[in-house]
């Protein structure tokens, strides 16, 4: 998951122990660097740094690193961090040339995708999944950024706890929220806390969305379906209904979901990010979005028959509504030819959904009617 603190932790370890090695180098944002450079050139940059040689060059004929340079590297105890690897090809191209280092060397690789690390088979390696900060650590970090001290002031204690719970241990969120609220009055904080329930224009959104952008089409669809409808559902149910067992594994390996005994779980920030992606599909016309879950939007669209072929999923949850009587047209779903998921939940007897003239038809692609 983006923003959880992988790079920050790697930097802290690097700063603490790099002096114990003959040479060290921290390769930042490897994925970005390899988009515009060949891996050989980046390897040469690393070797120049750890061998303390400024004039190393690739072999003219083969455009590769010379055996002499590799032999020198094999005898040197080094500490290298390869940060933010996007895919296995990058790691294979860069990492294979760097693991042949001297005895006692250490290499740390950070990635949002555990599968990349599993595929990069190296002896004596361990995979560590970075966890979010615990509540005490999170409150301290937030307070340092929001109040320039280790704890909230008494007036802001409740609001600070609310913000820390909102971030759920995400390092980036805590770092961004603190300065954003620095210097505000209590009334301004209360207003801002409501605004922050949508993270569309924030730095947090942009960082989290990187992981989403790296998914393929089927994986993106599953991510958005979980964000909008299936957060908390049992894994087997979702896998069978949507035929998505492999895609669930991908989301799990990329830390975009966790799977617990109680069901699939998605971090609140990731869920909000997914829902913001859907909202941006049509900011002013909910009926043209792929997924609908807000009761007000759903009721208005169904009541006015303004759904479109873009709609793929609808969830009407009236848990917190009272005395809603919704009369639907018999053509209510006629325009929604791509509708696949349809959920109605109205546990209170005071809420009713009526089809006084029946229903002409349901979309051919409908998978779930619950």
Automatic annotation (TrEMBL):
All residue ranges annotated as the Disease resistance protein Roq1-like winged-helix domain in the record: 217-282
Keyword Isomerase found: no
Record flagged with keyword Repeat: yes
Molecular functions per Gene Ontology: ADP binding
Any one biological process term the GO annotation gives: defense response
Superkingdom in the source lineage: Eukaryota
InterPro entries attached to this UniProt entry: Apaf_helical, Disease_R_plants, NB-ARC, P-loop_NTPase, WH_DNA-bd_sf, WHD_ROQ1-like
Domain NB-ARC, chain residue ranges per copy: 1-150
Any coiled-coil regions, as ranges: none
Keywords: Leucine-rich repeat, Repeat
Annotated protein name in UniProt: NB-ARC domain-containing protein
Species of origin: Dipteronia dyeriana
């Amino acid at each position: 998951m983006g923003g959880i603190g992988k790079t920050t932790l790697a930097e802290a370890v690097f700063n603490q122990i790099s002096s114990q090695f003959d040479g060290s180098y921290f390769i930042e944002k490897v994925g970005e660097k390899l988009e515009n450079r060949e891996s050989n050139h980046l390897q040469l940059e690393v070797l120049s740094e750890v061998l303390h040689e400024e004039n190393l060059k690739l072999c003219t004929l083969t455009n590769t690193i010379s055996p002499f340079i590799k032999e020198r590297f094999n005898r040197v105890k080094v500490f290298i961090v390869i940060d933010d690897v996007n895919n296995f090809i990058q790691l294979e191209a860069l990492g294979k040339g760097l693991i042949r280092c001297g005895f006692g060397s250490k290499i740390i690789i950070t990635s949002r995708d555990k599968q990349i690390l599993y595929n990069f088979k190296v002896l004596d390696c361990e995979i560590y999944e970075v966890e979010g900060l615990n509540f005490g650590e999170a409150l301290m970090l937030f307070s340092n950024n929001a109040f320039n001290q280790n704890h909230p002031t008494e007036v802001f204690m409740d609001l600070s706890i609310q913000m820390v719970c909102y971030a759920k241990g995400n390092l980036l969120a805590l770092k961004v929220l603190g300065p954003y609220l620095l210097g505000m009055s209590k009334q301004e904080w209360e207003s801002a806390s409501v605004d922050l329930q949508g993270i569309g224009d924030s730095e947090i959104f942009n960082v989290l969305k990187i992981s989403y952008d790296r998914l393929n089409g089927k994986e993106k669809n599953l991510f958005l379906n979980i964000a909008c409808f299936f957060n908390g559902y049992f894994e087997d149910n979702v896998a069978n209904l949507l035929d998505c067992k492999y895609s669930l594994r991908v989301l799990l390996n990329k830390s975009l979901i966790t799977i617990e005994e109680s069901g699939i779980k998605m971090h609140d920030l990731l869920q909000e990010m997914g829902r913001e992606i859907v909202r941006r599909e049509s900011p002013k016309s909910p009926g043209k979005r792929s997924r609908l879950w807000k009761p007000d939007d759903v009721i208005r669209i169904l009541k006015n028959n303004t759904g479109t072929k873009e709609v793929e999923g609808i969830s009407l949850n009236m848990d917190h509504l009272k005395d809603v009587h919704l009369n639907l047209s018999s053509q209510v779903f006629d325009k929604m030819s791509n509708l696949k998921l349809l959920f109605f939940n109205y546990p209170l007897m005071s809420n009713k959904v009526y089809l006084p003239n029946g229903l002409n038809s349901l979309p051919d692609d409908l998978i779930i009617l619950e």
